[in-house]
Design goal:
The protein has about 70 residues and is mostly beta strands. Helix content is about 0%, strand content about 25%. It is built from no helices and three strands.
C-alpha cells in the first residue's frame, strides 16, 4: 500500500529506549525502498521488538533474514 504521507519507522529491542535514528524513511510521492538493520531480540520472550512510526500512516512488514548465535 502507499503511505498516506511522509514519515519514518524505527525498530528497537523491547524494553529499551527508542533510538533517535530511523530504520527507514518513507514518502507518499516516491518509491519507497526496503532497508535493513540489526536489532537485538530475546530468544524465548513473548515480546521481542518495538516498532515506532511518525508522520503519515503506513503498513509495516517485518522479515527476519537471519540471526547471530553466541556459544554458551
Amino acid at each position: 500500500s502507499v503511505p498516506l504521507g511522509n514519515g519514518w519507522i524505527t525498530a528497537y529491542p523491547y524494553g529499551s529506549a527508542a533510538p533517535t535514528a530511523s530504520i527507514v524513511n518513507y514518502r507518499s510521492d516516491a518509491q519507497n525502498v526496503a532497508n535493513s538493520g540489526t536489532i537485538k531480540t530475546c530468544f524465548n520472550c513473548t515480546k521481542d521488538i518495538n516498532i515506532k512510526s511518525g508522520g503519515g500512516k503506513t503498513h509495516v512488514i517485518i522479515d527476519v533474514l537471519g540471526y547471530y548465535y553466541s556459544k554458551p
